[in-house]
Every structure is written in C-alpha cells, then in structure tokens.
Amino acid sequence: MICWNSKFDSYVKTLKDGNERIIAVEINSSPKRICLINCYLPTSGYSDTAVKYQDNLDLLEIIIQKYCESHQIILVGDMNATMLLSRRNDSDRRFRSFIDKHKLGTLANMGTAPTYQHGKGSSQIDYIFSHTVDNLLELEICHQHPTNTSSHVPVVGKIKATLSLTCAKSIKPPERRRNLWKDCDIEAYQSTLSNSQIPIIERPDQIKTFIDQLNGNILAAAKIAVPSKKIRLKGPKWKASPALRQLLVKGNLIHKNWIQYGRPTVNHPIIEERRSIKRRIRSQQRQDMACERKQFYNQIVESGKSTNFYKLIRRGLSNTISKPQGFMNEGQLILDLDKQSKGFARFYEDLAVPKQLEQFDSDYHENTQFNLELIRKIVLENKDTFSPITPDEVKSAIYKLNNNKSSDEYGICAEHLKLAKKFYINFLRKIQCLPNRSVKGITYLLLGVRPATAELHIRQLNLLGCIIRSENLTLNKILRRQISTKSETSDSWFTYIDKLLVQYDLPSAAKMVINPPCKLLWKKNVKLAIDKFWTQKLLLDCQNKSTLSYCDLSSLKIGTVHKLWSSIESNIKDVRRGGIKARLITGTYVLQSNTSKFNQHEVSSVCPLCQYEDEDIVHFILKCNALFKYRKSYIEELEVIINSISNPNTCSWNSLVGDFGLLTQLILDPSVLIKQKILSCSEKTLTKIEDCSRKMCFSLHCGRSLIINSEH
User: How many CB atoms lie within 10 A of CB 4?
Assistant: First the structure.
C-alpha cells in the first residue's frame, strides 16, 4: 500500500503497472520524476515459492526497465529476502542477484539491524533501495514499540526531491447546475432538436455511436433553450431569521471589542458578554429550527404532495440536520437503535404478508387482480412471439416518468424526453434526407410505415382480442359487465376501444364476445383495417399538393416501401443518392424558381448556372447546358434500357425525348408511366431505371453545387 496526503494529489499519479503484490506511483518532481515501487514478495517455505518469487522479480524488472530512463527508481517494501550474507536460501540469492543487476543501493547505516521479529529469531527483509544512493538523505530502522502489534518494525527514509510547480494547480470541482424546465423555450428546444444531425445506422456496431450522438443532440438543445442555475453555492444553507440576524450583528461587535482588549481569558467583563451572546445565538438558532420543522411537518400533512415527502426523506439522510431520537411503533416510543431496527423489520415483514383489512379498497384490489391475470394471459399467449416496442409505447412510458428527478448516466432526465414531442416524424424525415417542410403524409408513405398512433391502436385492439379469447371466468365476467354497463361518456377503456372499432370499421366488442375471432385472423383483420384507414388519411393529406406532381400517389400505401427506397443497396453512398432523389420527387429540392417564390419574386428565378431560362425541376434535370456533362452518360444508359424493352405497348425512346415532361417523369417516378400504359416493363427493368436515375440525380446535384461554390 502507498499512502500520501490529499494535498499532494496533483503531484502523485498511480501507474497501471504491477499486480496484487506490486504497485507503483509516479511523483512529479524535478529535475527528474520519481517512480516509487512498493512490493510484498512471496514468502519462502512453500513448494511453488521459487516460481512465484521469480515471476514477481521478472515483473519488477519490466517496470524498472520501462521507467529507468525517464524516472528515478525507488524500490521499497517487504522483500522476504535479505541482503545479509549470513543467509543463503534460494530467495536470498535471487534477490541479491536482482539488486546487483539493476545497480540498486541503500545507505550503509542499514547495518544488520533486524526489521522482522518472529518466535524463532529475527531477520532483515524490509528495505528502501534507489538507483542514486545520494538522493537518500536519511535511513533509519525503528525500534519495536509497545503499540506496534506487527511483527515488522518501520523503516523510515528521507529522499531529496523538488516537487514540480507546474502540477500544483488546484483542481476546481465541476460546476453543478440545475435546469429550470418551467422557463424552457419549448419552440427553440424542439427546433434545435429537429435540426440536429442524426447519423445513419448501417451496422450493429454503430448503435452506440448513434445513441451517443442522439444524447449529445438532446443535451445541446437543452443548453440552448433551458435556463439553469448553480446548485453549488457558498455560505450556510440555512436562512437566518430577523431576530437571529440582530444577535449575530451584536455578537460580531462584542467579538471585535474582545480583540481590541487583547483577547483576555480571565477576569474581564467582555468575557461574560461574549459567553452570554453565544448562548443567546445558539438558543435563537434552536428556536428557529424547531419552528421551521413544525411548519414543514404541518405542510406535509396539509398538502399531501409527494415532493414534501421526499424532502423529509432527504432531511433524514442529511448530516447537517439533527435526526429524530426515536419513532412510534405499536403505540410505543422506541429510542434504542437495536429495537428501532427490529421494529422496522416487523413493520416490513407485516407489510409483505398478503391480508384483507377493512381499510383496503376492494375495487382497487379487484382491478389489480384483473390486470395481473391479464398480463399473465398475454405472456402465456405470446410467449413464442416477439412484439417489437412501438414508438407510441415508448412515448407512453416517457410521459409516465416523474419530473424533477436526477438525470441518468448520460445526463438525460424525464423533461428532456417529454419536451421532444415531434421527434418521431422529424426522425423519419431525417432518415430520408427530407426537410422539415415536406408533407407529413409523404414522409410515412414513401417508407410504408405506420404513424405512431396507428401502431398504438394495433396493440390496443390486439389486447382486446386477448381479453375476449381468455378462458378465465373472472376475466370474462368483468368484460361482460363493462360492455353492458359502460356509457359513451365514461372513461372506461372499453368505451375508448369501441370508438376505435367504429373508426376502423371493425365488429363491436359485444358481437365479438358472442363469436370470438381466432387469434391470427383477428390480428390480420386489425392490421388490414388500420393500414387501409391510415393510407387513405395520409393520401388525403398529399392530395392537391403541387410539390408532389411527379410522385405516383396511387401506388403508395402503408406496408409497401416505394421503389425509390426498396431498390437501393445497403451502403451510405446509395442512401445519399436516394435522399437527393427523394427531395426531387417530393418537390422539396430548392431550385432558383423555389427561392424566387419564397422571397415574393424579389430574387430572380433564372438559372444561376446557364442564365438562359427559369430554373425549375425540368430545366435542372434535362435542359441546363451547364450540367450537360453530368447527365450525358446517364441519359445514354437510360436510352439503352428503354430500347431493350421488347414490348409493343412501350413507347419508343424518341417519343420520350420529344416530351420533356414524360422524360422527367421517367427519371423521377416511372411507375406513373406504367399506370398510364405509356411504359410496360418488368420489375428487373424498373429497378435498372431507378438505379440509373438515382445516380443521375445525385450527379446533377453534385455538379450544381460544384459550379455554384466555384463562382462564389
């Protein structure tokens, strides 16, 4: 063991070298740092002592060779071997050879005095060695003292070293702050979070990086939008009352007078005044604390808030506030600590035993039993399947978190998550490289995913199916009673479920009780009904949007991924290409014509590359002369693909080239031409068209950015 005063913490650093018998520290001294090695080598008398002893000497040699050039080596400890020639066992020979090899020495006044006393004799096995003996100023083997119960006596040494002032900087504790969530700018918080960079997960080993980035974005948004205050403050934590302040002022004056009189200790009137004012201050402090405790206890009883109860618990754990001497148990005041422990044990033992008492709420007990039976039934029926956690389930769990609680190891607390309401839809936009202004419906439909609300409804309706199919008599009894007695205005879960059944055009709960559907059929019908409803609702949101004129809305539906995303390969370059094309299909790619509209035509809509005509999506993809070299090879590839289609119903490449609108549609979303029977091709050919057009859009984007940046 190596110990040092805490004031030298900035000079001493523990080294990772060593094992359970050897430890080392680095002392930052000048002109050369010190490597202090403390060891307790294996004792003799065992069959494997020689092997263990040599292993530890080898480890010491590695440490010394590692630090001998840059450090001054000091070796101390119980060597379980001696430098005296009177002993010649195997450990002694190995140890003396090791010391000679590394040119370690000690002061001559070590002599032959023993450092270890035992029943059969004594020996010298505790040493202090150094590479440079001149740095050892003093060395002494202490005498045995009555208070020393060890068989070893201390060996005291002094070394010559100057501590480096460069390391004597005071370590300032980190500033602790508390977020004031009541004053949070929610708009700024959500906006910052939505605009933050989110990395794309391509491999499982990137999940940790993704989580770290996500947590960093949340903390950065909170730092911008949430004010905070310091919680590490100087000075006393208690507030002095007006009466106590007056006594403190008077006490300060008396103390100054006592100093002016030369700090007398006996036979002076100021001494009695000083004692009297101290007694009065302590008495007033006790009165104020008693009054504050009484007010606090009354507040707990009257308000009934859990926050006050937790304050009481924190006070009980605090060392700065006097703790109660006892507590009431079974009508008796218990003051003895052992009896208090036994009283608590009896209380919690009694609390853990199930029982039926008059003061228990029977309705609450019945609901609890119902929920337990329901959970058991669900687990049994779904034990062979895995139901992934939905965003709405996560959202529901987040809203159940308590506010004003400490943060986790990442620094995230409940308020961070509760205020990030619109993160799900923005996250889907980020995945597709779409801006926040893109139509909400198209964000879901391009990926074919359900909104979070739809996922929650699926889980709720599947739960209804589990309840109806349950063979538990108590469960069936409660179910029938709820269905028959509930009203449309009640807060019953079954009332809420009935509204969902009507919304999705599914049979009512009363009909299903009479004729329960099978598990797989019910789940299938629920998914089909919900997907149909949300597909229609999201398509309605996309209708009459001029930005979606090149997108085939009729082919979009929940559960089917658009060809744009289903045809890409799983690499980051292809994903980036898909992101550019997604922005072109959804009309969110910013061209000069868009900029002109957004600025009320104060900015010119003419193409900044060729200065020939307005830069709209057709001009950008097909007409701009400045981008000719970026599209040439891809246009030729598209021509080969179209001409290779041996279908008489497909129009020729020449007819497509003659109509810029049709050619633009072919590049952005060829499924529209297939629906209009202008194009007829296989899925394989359609994938080739998608792949070529995706690369072309990305090439045009890179070319446009390169030209604009070079001009600026």
Answer: 12
Give how far Cα 652 sits from Cα of 642, 659, 672, Å: 7, 12, 16
Please calculate the CA angle 252-257-259 and round it to the nearest 5 degrees: 95
DSSP 310-349: HHHHHHHH-SSSPPPS-EEETTEEE--HHHHHHHHHHHHH
Q: How far is CA 374 from CA 255, 387, 470, 471, in A?
A: 73, 17, 9, 11
In the block, tokens 């957004």 appear at: 598
Tokens 């005509």 correspond to 613
| Look-up of token digits 């020449």 | 654
Nearest Cα to Cα of residue 662 among 649, 648, 676: 676
Residue type, 358: E
State the burial class of residue 434 (Cβ atoms within 10 Å of its Cβ: 0-12, 13-18, 19+): buried
CB 140 within 8 A of CB 166: no
* CB neighbour list of residue 400: distance below 8 Å, 6 or more residues apart: none
CB 155 within 8 A of CB 139: yes
pTM: 0.43
Locate 578 and state its tokens. 């898909």
The neighbour count for residue 74, using CB atoms within 10 Å, is: 23
Q: What distance in Å separates the CA atoms of residue 457 and residue 448, rounded to the nearest whole number?
A: 17
**Nearest of 291, 292, 309, 290 to residue 300 by alpha carbon:** 309
User: pLDDT class for 321, splitting at 50, 70, 90?
Assistant: very low
pLDDT at 385 over 80: no
Task: Verify cis geometry, omega within 30 degrees of 0, for the bond prior to 236.
Answer: no
The tokens describing 608, both together, are 């900044």
**Residue 39, beta-bridge partner list:** 22, 77
Nearest Cα to 361, choosing from 372, 369, 352?
Answer: 369
The confidence score (pLDDT) of residue 278 equals 92
- The residues that bridge with 229 in the sheet, in sequence order, are 178
Taking the C-alpha atoms of residue 686 and residue 412, their distance in angstroms, rounded to an integer, is 46
Rg (CA), the chain: 41
Any residues with CB less than 8 A from the CB of 471 and at least 6 apart, and which? none
Arithmetic mean of pLDDT, 27-36: 86
Q: What does DSSP assign to residue 162?
A: E
Helix (H), strand (E) counts: the chain: 27, 15
Using alpha carbons only, give the angle 548, 550, 553 rounded to the nearest 5 degrees: 65
pLDDT band with cut points at 50, 70 and 90 for residue 208: confident
Q: Which of 352, 384, 381, 356 is nearest to 369 (CA)?
A: 356
Let me know: does 692 contact 616? Beta carbons within 8 Å.
no
DSSP-assigned letter for residue 495: H
641 phi and psi angles, rounded to 5 deg: -65, -45
Helix, coil or strand: residue 548 = helix
Helix ranges restricted to H, 437-492: 440-447, 452-469, 473-485
Give the orientation angle of helix 423-431 with respect to helix 186-194, to 10 degrees: 20
Amino acid, single-letter form, for residue 540: L
